[in-house]
Specification:
2 copies of one chain form a homodimer.
Chain A (H helix, E strand, L loop, with lengths): L8 E3 L9 E6 L11 E16 L7 H10 L3 E11 L5 H19 L6 E8 L6 H14 L5 H7 L8 E9 L2 E10 L12 E6 L5 H13 L16 E6 L13 H23 L7 E9 L2 H13 L1 H9 L4 H9 L11 E4 L2 E5 L2 E2 L2 H11 L3 E7 L5 E8 L3 H8 L4
Parallel strand pairs in A: 4-5, 8-9, 10-14
Antiparallel strand pairs in A: 1-6, 2-3, 3-4, 3-9, 6-7, 7-8, 10-15, 11-12, 11-14, 12-13
Helix pairs in contact in A: 1-2, 2-3, 5-6, 7-9
């Protein structure tokens, strides 16, 4: 049975669900643990490409190199390594990123200007290029239409699970797929997330249209767990479109493009939530919803203040709704509101009404919600009509353990 | 032997080192543990007063009440309770704060408009006024010229030690003292600190001069551990001047006033560092020094980004100089600089030169410094001439333990 027009259907797997894509993941020795640390994702034919990059002033070499490639609008492959961020590595880092891309281009017989590079891991150490070269050769040999899952494993750092998702919809008489893989996962404050994502589609889209669609999807997904402008040195979301589904090109103003944009947004949001849920040491995923702010900007400020407050985050870990900490975070957020009008609820359980606590019984009911793995905090400021939504995790002792010993 | 003109001498003790001051600290039952939770500090004769308050939009009842009192410029007493912040408690909270002040005024036979109130503890619970009334009566009975240390203990929450300091200098033929007490101590991000401080001096100063001196001292001390504008619902620094030393009034433009300002700054800075050092779960005190920023504002932004980064703070706890995290924090701080010109050192040990790491041997030497309890991170941006200095702590597993279980 086929879903109706414009309907999105979730599919199993990730990048391998997309026609015209091959991938591989190998272990080349960049990680001391011997785990997979190099991924290669290839489009069989030149594909359209779009990408968003970190806005951090300190940008890793692969970010600088991939940014230049983006101007061409065409994609042949992306090579991603974990275990080393190739950031703060100076000119040598740029040369290493370019050499990695050149090696891939050479082995695949494709233009080097269409080969992208991404890295994640420790900052400030030179890349072991002997390992990278060997890894690239092995990954090229192992490229397969079923290699998406291996690639998804090879980009992980402190993530505890691979992150893949796929969505399908009808365009004309064809079925079109949008699928992706991502890695996290520092999540104490949303802006600390260090993330990479590669998204592929077999839709036919021109690079400009793809870039606009990706920008919109990232704004309401990855940027709601990683705050715009406040990202790490290596963050990158790359999307390429192979056109291999054989459906007609998606044109602005058509229903098919709208469906594609919804599919892309769903893929991004699913991956973003996977990243948040797998945040370092996270045991909870909380959706912070601000309502009734005076402007979008203030709604976002309020949501960020709550979502990044270590005191709020430890409260979530402790499963005890210490709502005063939420009020204190709102109060220093920069959003304008009257504290005596604020309502707060956990899922649908009201805890604060007009700035005053509803007492121990309400708090006990809310605490039962906090014992779940996922819940929402809804905060109504009653100061205007703007809303914002962010996802955050709790802050656990495990976070500290992971991050204090990360390099050792 | 007397120190020379303008020299500051450290004295033992806190508020009790100041002539014309009596204090007491009692346990009245606001804390479940039965520890002291109510402090009273009294000036024998009407004193000049100055204060700075939290800029949080959500302000506790005692902050609102004390702010009004400040307009009068005169001080008779301050009553402080721990165990309950009297914040987010609506009109009842205001009535409770006013009644507490009125009770003190009545018992002391002083004008209610000269009695200040401060609270710290859990937000959103009504004050147990029966306990407060009993506490105020007992504290009044126990008032003593030697009661400063008891008062300092009664204002603590999760602090592990009382915080007192005193400094002395010569003014004319008299010795003048400035002394204070403070409590912390949430310190994961500087702006999370929940702090109270009471400072007393037996100098003779008019309220306007005192307010200016206090504002300047707070800017380079408490506001360098608690970021201006980003404070909790209850933060308050109050300073009163009894004039009981018998020295001539301090007038603007005189050397004596300059010495007083230095003494006040030293008292504030000593207390601020005590707060930072005793931050929840803190095992390290790090001085973050930014040099060569394009403006004061950018220097401050850069220092704050580094000082509040959970990834940097866990690195300090782990005693491993993962300097890439420092670079990433600088990069998202908003400060403008060329990453390829940044130098970084731990104490005097260089780790990064012109944006590049100096290698494992340099890092090993830096890590030996990180094993100390106190050290400095100096970051030269080489983008301008502005500098800033902040103090921060590491982020330990104990922080999470303390904050996840705080209310339980």
């Amino acid at each position: 049975m086929r879903a109706g027009k414009g309907a999105l259907t979730t599919k199993r797997g990730g990048l391998s669900a997309v026609a015209g894509v091959r991938a591989a993941g190998v272990a080349c020795g960049l990680k001391k643990t011997g785990r997979p640390d190099l991924a290669l994702v290839v489009a069989d034919h030149p594909a359209a490409v779009a990408a968003t990059f970190t806005l951090n002033r300190v940008q890793a070499a692969p970010v600088l190199v991939s940014k230049r490639r983006l101007r061409g609008g065409r994609f042949a492959a992306i090579v991603l390594n974990s275990g080393n961020a190739n950031a703060c590595t100076g000119r040598q880092g740029i040369r290493d990123a370019e050499e990695t891309a050149a090696e891939v281009a050479h082995l695949l017989g494709r233009p080097v200007g269409q080969v992208f590079v991404a890295s994640t891991g420790v900052i400030g150490r030179p890349l072991n290029m002997a390992a990278v070269r060997a890894g690239v050769r092995e990954a090229t040999r192992r490229l397969s239409a079923k290699g998406g899952a291996q690639a998804a494993r090879a980009i992980l750092t402190t993530d505890t699970a691979a992150k893949e998702t796929a969505v399908e919809f009808s365009a004309g008489r064809r079925r079109v797929t949008v699928a992706g893989m991502a890695k996290g996962s520092g999540m104490i404050a949303p802006h600390m997330a260090t993330m990479l994502a590669v998204i592929a589609t077999d839709a036919a889209v021109d690079p400009g249209t793809l870039q606009r669609a990706l920008g919109e999807a990232v704004a309401v997904s990855f940027n709601c767990i990683t705050v715009d402008g406040d990202t790490s040195t290596n963050d990158m979301v790359l999307c390429f479109a192979t056109g291999a589904a054989g459906a007609p090109p998606l044109r602005p103003g058509t229903p098919a493009l709208d469906t594609f944009r919804r599919a892309l947004e769903q893929v991004c949001l699913t991956l973003a939530k996977m990243i948040a849920r797998d945040g370092e040491g996270a045991t909870k995923l909380a959706e912070i919803r601000i309502q009734g702010a005076r402007s979008m900007r203030e709604a976002r400020q309020a949501a960020e203040a709550v979502a990044t407050s270590p005191l709020v985050k430890t409260t979530l870990f402790g499963q005890d709704i210490n709502w005063g900490r939420v009020m204190a975070a709102l109060g220093r957020s920069g959003a304008r509101f009257d504290p005596a009008r604020v309502d707060l609820s956990v899922d649908e359980v009201p805890v604060v009404c007009r700035g005053l606590g509803l007492g121990p019984r309400a708090e006990a009911a809310a605490n039962r919600r906090l014992r779940r793995r996922e819940f929402g905090l809804t905060i109504a400021l009653h100061a205007g009509a703007a809303a914002a939504r962010l996802w955050t995790t709790d802050l656990s002792e495990a976070y500290v353990r992971i991050n204090a010993g990360y390099r050792s």
